[in-house]
Fold these 2 entries.
Entry 1:
Amino acid sequence: QKEVEQNSGPLSVPEGAIASLNCTYSDRVSQSFFWYRQYSGKSPELIMSIYSNGDKEDGRFTAQLNKASQYVSLLIRDSQPSDSATYLCAVATSGTYKYIFGTGTRLKVLA
Amino acid sequence: SAVISQKPSRDICQRGTSLTIQCQVDSQVTMMFWYRQQPGQSLTLIATANQGSEATYESGFVIDKFPISRPNLTFSTLTVSNMSPEDSSIYLCSVEGAGAHEQYFGPGTRLTVT
């Protein structure tokens, strides 16, 4: 059974701090990794995609991938109350669109 | 990214009936996907719908319960048949994005079965 695991949280951070969200996956042949943000009552919104080991930065967001250790993380710098949401990690097997989603981490940024 | 709409946005249905959910995209896409998100849970892929071929269903989902149509490159429907309260969920369609294996989601259909 292929699995993607996330800490459900809530993860509470003060405004302006760095929020660190982690995700581990079980399928070693996974090749594509995605972070989605989902506000309550809304659909998931793609934030970042990452395919190679290392860091990928986009604005206040940095995705980190370590295939050897089978984890992917998302850092949010200068966290804002508007970042409060559930963050979903999704993993796709090589060459496919078949996503397996984690259960999500609820982030609360405290003003 | 593509603009995706779904109809209806929400519905309350009686047990034993069926509901057809529509997904419309503002650009042509080869691959569309249907997901279910049960209350308080994450997303589960129901099926992949490619234009011109039969939908491919994931383990635990069958065509008789969730028939899918994909008549063209901008439209798809998912029918939830013979509904029971356990089918109460949010149903989302998604489409392939510009990046490798990226997906973008529609706004979802919130279904309640009584």
Entry 2:
Amino acid sequence: EPEVTQTPSHQVTQMGQEVILRCVPISNHLYFYWYRQILGQKVEFLVSFYNNEISEKSEIFDDQFSVERPDGSNFTLKIRSTKLEDSAMYFCASRTSWPKETQYFGPGTRLLVL
Amino acid sequence: GENVEQHPSTLSVQEGDSAVIKCTYSDSASNYFPWYKQELGKRPQLIIDIRSNVGEKKDQRIAVTLNKTAKHFSLHITETQPEDSAVYFCAATNSGYALNFGKGTSLLVTP
């Protein structure tokens, strides 16, 4: 069964550094999402992406964040200048088109900002 | 925006007993309600979902009920097993939009 994949699984960075988290959604999916989960808390929506543009974003997704689909398979989340509070597990998710609404999650990237 | 409340935050049951987790939502436009199971350090995995045109859905030991009028939905797990131990998240969304998650319920099934 196809799965969403993410790299790296863990990333440690210094405050102020840029990080890029990578995701490969399921191949026939059209909608892509990034969520984050701070340790012990609920999963929070960051951004959704469809047809090569952002379709929805949360308050968390400020100017420090950007997303890109650089080619036909990858979907990336960039954090330009990381803060301590960006430390979290970042999940990518994807889904196919309506009426199938299930979002499939990747294994996550654990980001630690020191 | 949508606000999803989930209760209880922790639940401990004996193996073989039933477990019930309840969620409420605020946005009457929400029409899709998935439940995810997350084991420690793993990805959330969909276990069951329900759409607003249905009041109940069952898949083996797992069932979900939805009351649109009261804006609440519940997860029922019967004949619980130790491998059911995990964190369960409910979510609500208007089709295709972001999933709004509850805070999660940590379920412990003791042998």
